[in-house]
Amino acid sequence: MEVSVLNIKGQDTGRKVVLDDAIFGIEPNDHAIYLDVRLFLANQRQGTAKAKERSEVSGSTRKLGRQKGGGGARRGDINSPVLVGGGRVFGPQPRDYGFKLNKKVRRLARKSALAYKAQENAIVVVEDFTFDAPKTKNFVEVINNLKVDGKKSLFVLQGTDKAVYLSARNIERVNVMAASALNTYKVLDADVLVLTESALGVVGETLNN
User: Fold this and answer.
1) Is 96 inside a domain boundary?
2) What is this structure's pTM?
3) CA distance 187 to 3
4) Residue 122 belongs to a domain with what CATH number?
5) Number of domains present in the structure of the chain
6) How far apart are CA 5 and CA 152, in angstroms?
7) Which of the listed residues 91, 116, 144 is the one where a domain comes to its end?
8) Domain that holds residue 67
9) pLDDT per residue over 45-75, tens digit each?
């Protein structure tokens, strides 16, 4: 699949790049995508929820009533879970929600997400660009020139470019990231994927190794 290379003014440079069929032309694997997105979302969770159990509640350990004959449930001390203000049974504890996912599955998921974008003709390739200084106005002009304004856009650069990142930070529905950090969730979450020429090469090297 060939895609025309545009400049940041939205003009066709007359050059074309070929999207690697081993990445952008595969049959998408929905289950691999599901697993990788689930892992991404799980890793976003802090896992700091905590409830006090019976032994952690501050209170007397004196037995409130006799063991039998009271006509109610056995409850022991005031920290009992059956009493208001007592401990919680099997409450949440700090934990890591992440899980193991094989590298090949994660790679397949990213390829599948990119293949979906290629099928939707939602990939734009632009010349490498940068800004001398952070300027939101300059990035808005790029978005308008590429005709992706109003769409949720993901700009993928070869590496980390602070000036470009800061220029896009305050623009709604626009994300900028390095090609090495590309993940399945971000690709699927975007309406259009804007890749620089160099970033396209990095994506190819990363997913074909």
Assistant:
1) no
2) 0.85
3) 18
4) 3.40.1370.10
5) 2
6) 20
7) 91
8) 51-91
9) 999 999 999 999 999 999 998 999 989 888 8
